[in-house]
Every structure is written in C-alpha cells, then in structure tokens.
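Example S7 (structure tokens).
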C-alpha cells in the first residue's frame, strides 16, 4: 500500500472523488468502505458483484451506510450487455432491437423499467445508453449495442432512453463520445482510428450526443479512439480538443455545450493502458477535461485506487494538472451524487420479483413486448411457416464474445425452445471446431448433421456476415438440410436463408424467447 508524501487533505479527497473503481465479491470489502470514508464518491459494479436483486440492494445499502450520497454505477445497457442479469441473460432487448421497432415511446418505456429495477437495487448511475451510429457493419464492439446506422434514428432513441432512465431516478451516461460506430478495432485491445472529417462527424457521430445533451443527459462517457480531425496525437479520452474544445464548449463556440459529468471509458483498456500506462493516462484524462475515471473492470483492489489517487496528487504538485481542474472535476461528481439522492421516487420501489426478471410480470412485460415487435421474420418463398411440433436440435454457432458483452452471459434460443418443446437439445460450435473438423466448415456442418440425427435443425448465428467460418458452415448445412430454421441474433447483414429466417436484432434472453415462440407457433412475431 502506498502513502502520500505531501498534499493537502482536500486535494487527496478530490483525487479520490474522481475515481470510479470496481471491486471483487458480492459484498463491500473493508478497503472499499474505508476509502468511501476517506472521500471516494463513486463505485462501479460488474457482473461479478451481482447474484440477485436482493443481494445487490443489500450491497448498495452497505455503501450508503458509509457515504449516503454515493454514486453506484453499472454498465447495464440491456440486451447483450447486462450486469444485472449476467447469469441468465437480459429481460430487455438491446438498442438495435429498439431502433428496428423505431417507436421512441417503447424505448422510453423499456429504459424506464430498466431504470426502475436499477433504482430499486440502489444503483443510480448507468453507463448507458450507447449513442454510437453503427455505420461500419464490421464493427467488432458496437454492433447490436447501437440503435442503428442512421444518425437521426439513433438520436431520437438515445433521447427516449435518457428520458426514461432519468425519470426513474437513474442518471444516464451516454457513450462513447465522440462516436465508436465507424471502427473496425475494439478499443479493449488496441487504439482504433477514425479518419472521418469534421463535417462527417457533425452530420453523423455527433448528432445523437447533441440530442442527448439537449435532453438533459447527466453524463457523457468518452471513447478511447483517435480522430485526427479533432486531435492528431491523442485519443478522445486524453484530448482537451475533444473534451473541452468540442464536448464542453458552448454551442456558440462550436461545441456541444455539455455541462454535466464527463466519465472515461475503462482506463485499463489497452487503447490507454497499453500506450500511456494507467497512472499517466489517468492524469492526462483529467487534465484534458474528464471528471471521473472508470477503472476496476480488471484492476479491482485498494492498491490500484491508491496508485491513481497518488498519481493525481503528484501531478498537481508537479504542475502537470492544475488544482482547479481537479477540484472542478470532483465538484461535478459530487453534484451528480446530490442529484441522484433526490431524483428517485418518493417511496422506494420493491425489488423486482422472479416473474419480473423473467419478463413475465406486468412490470416486466414491456421487455418481452419489445422483443416480439423487434423480430423480422422471413419464410422461404411464399409459404408460411409451419410451427415445429417435435423437439428440435439447436446448433448454436458461437463467435468469441467481445469484452463489453462478456463470455459468461448465456444467449441463444435453446433454453426457451426447451421450455416450449420439451426434449430440445442444444450444442455449441465455434471457430475452433471448424478448424479441427476434416474439411473445415463443411466438416463442421457434417458434425452438426450427425449430432442432429433426424431432428429438425434450428441454426443460431450471431453476426454471420463477420465470421467466414460461420457463413461457410451455415451454407453447407442448408445445402443438406434446406428445411433448417435460421435465427440471426446479431446485426442482420446477410441475405435471409433457411426455411424460416428470424432476425432478433440482439442476443438477449428475451429475444431468444420471442424467436422460440415463433418457431414453436406459440405467438406471431411483429
């Protein structure tokens, strides 16, 4: 454990205040409670911290016993990115599904219900929604997390999401400024570069952020991406041109006029830590205009918190960071914490029930409604789909999950089909299986055929257009079994194929349920 050699108490508290660290475990460790007492004002939660709504409510109550006005943040987008339901899959479809329906009132209702559940568990800051315009269909990290590929559609749904979430007393943090939709690199692993000019940025990437700011979004999260049109040397998170010259500057001065909190994306991500180092990157971010440093997705201990605290204090003493800039950042964090303490409902909401979490309850029904309406159903030729009556074989072609989604969250239609058609069997196949099979993708298709035997096959894919092994295996499978049902749970770019093609626009559990209902004939899609 490190200690400060110099520095005032107020400077140390300000340095702690701008940190948003994570931790391990499902109850607050002693070190976290101790640092809350010393001035830490925010805590970040991840799937590893959550077992149930009741446990989460007890955890956040622990935090508030030490610091009543604490910001409890989470990355809960719904859809593919869920922490609240990481073990089961989300009860709500994600952004692409909502954008496909294109009913802002539905988006607002989904966000409000999600916010209600977060608030009932004591969470008051959501690192969501994604306001990225997914203009690059090969984007490996945004995809279904975006409302779509058209700026004004993304803008109106970003606004609806912010309004719904904040009406429930949970602050929205719109991300990933100035826009992560036109990248082909995941910033968790490397530094993406976008070569679009300022005119394109203003006509596309910035439109949803401006709309969200005008709608009163409490926070904006910066992206670790390099945009030479803004700054030739530094990524957005470390660029004063991006954060102060564009995001914070007034409309009259050509900026977006954001007066709320600026939060960084995870500082351990390789785009920052692999290039600048964690401490140096954190100092540069605050100096550039960031108010809160998200850290703890990987490094989640007291030593990391103290290292960053000390680095910020030392930077002030060394003249790399002004004391006023640090104080302003800390003041914005405390101001948002005060807003959240008075923004919730007059009476606490009860914790969600099991039925709510399954999307079956009256309160949770909006998630299932949205998932059903988001389906795009394409039967082969002019024939209508005849529901399956026997238990099928589900072949889930599974790509490697990106870090934002996480590999632990279940997805697919198998469990939901098993509920409707008992005896349904599911097997998962990945790129390694295609590599290992004799004949590659065609050999993998032969394996699926052998595993399925005489059962009807339901092939589940995810972004098939981005994975050649998956596309080839699917083509080989359909050549042998054209009656196969195909369910695309990613961004639907490839032409519909199979006897029945269902695009769910996301891989949340509730999307799987909506597709299973159509396959089994329980209901009709929208």
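Recovered sequence:
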């Amino acid at each position: 454990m490190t200690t400060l050699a110099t520095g005032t108490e107020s400077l140390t508290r300000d340095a702690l205040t701008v940190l948003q660290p994570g931790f391990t475990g499902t109850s607050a460790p002693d070190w976290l409670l101790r640092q809350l007492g010393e001035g830490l004002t925010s805590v970040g939660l991840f799937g590893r911290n959550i077992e149930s709504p009741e446990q989460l409510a007890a955890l956040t109550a622990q935090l508030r016993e030490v610091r009543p006005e604490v910001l409890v943040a989470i990355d809960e987008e719904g859809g593919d990115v869920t922490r609240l339901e990481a073990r089961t899959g989300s009860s709500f479809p994600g952004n692409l599904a909502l954008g496909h329906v294109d009913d802002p009132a539905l988006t607002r209702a989904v966000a409000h219900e999600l916010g209600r559940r977060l608030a009932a568990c004591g969470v008051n800051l959501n690192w969501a929604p994604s306001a990225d315009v997914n203009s690059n269909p090969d984007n490996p990290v945004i995809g279904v997390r975006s409302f779509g590929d058209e700026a004004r559609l993304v803008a109106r749904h970003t606004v609806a999401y912010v309004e719904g979430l904040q009406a429930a007393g949970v602050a929205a943090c719109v991300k990933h400024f100035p826009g992560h939709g036109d990248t082909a690199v995941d910033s968790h692993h490397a530094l993406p570069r976008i070569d679009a000019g300022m005119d394109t940025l203003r006509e596309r990437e910035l439109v949803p952020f401006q709309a969200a700011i005008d709608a009163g979004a409490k926070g904006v999260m910066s992206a670790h991406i390099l945009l030479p049109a803004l700054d030739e040397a530094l990524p957005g998170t470390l660029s004063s041109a991006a954060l102060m010259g564009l995001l914070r500057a007034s409309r009259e001065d050509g900026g977006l006029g954001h007066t709320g909190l600026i939060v960084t994306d995870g500082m351990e991500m390789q785009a920052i830590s692999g290039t600048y180092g964690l401490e140096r990157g954190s100092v540069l971010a605050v100096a550039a205009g960031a108010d809160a440093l998200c850290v703890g997705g990987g490094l989640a201990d007291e030593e990391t918190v103290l290292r960053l605290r000390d680095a910020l204090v030392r930077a002030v003493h060394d003249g790399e960071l002004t004391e006023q800039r640090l104080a302003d950042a800390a003041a914005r964090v405390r101001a948002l914490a005060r807003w959240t303490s008075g923004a919730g409902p007059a009476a606490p909401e009860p914790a969600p029930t099991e039925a709510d979490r399954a999307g079956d309850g009256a309160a949770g029904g909006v998630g299932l409604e949205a998932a059903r309406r988001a389906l795009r159903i394409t039967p082969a030729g002019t024939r209508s789909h005849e529901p399956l009556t026997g238990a099928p074989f589900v072949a889930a072609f599974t790509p490697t999950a990106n870090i934002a989604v996480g590999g632990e969250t279940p997805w697919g239609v198998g469990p939901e089909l098993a509920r409707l058609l008992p005896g349904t069997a599911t097997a998962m196949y990945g790129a390694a299986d295609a590599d290992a099979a004799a004949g590659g993708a065609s050999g993998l298709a032969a394996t699926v055929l052998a595993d399925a035997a005489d059962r009807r096959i339901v092939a589940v894919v995810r972004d098939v257009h981005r994975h050649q092994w998956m596309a080839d295996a699917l083509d080989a499978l359909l050549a042998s079994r054209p009656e196969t049902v195909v369910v695309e749970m990613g961004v639907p770019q490839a032409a519909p194929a199979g006897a029945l093609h269902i695009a769910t626009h996301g891989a949340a559990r509730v999307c799987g349920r909506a597709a299973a209902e159509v396959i089994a004939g329980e209901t009709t899609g929208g």
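Notes on this example. Residues 1-7, 357-364 have pLDDT under 50 and may be disordered.
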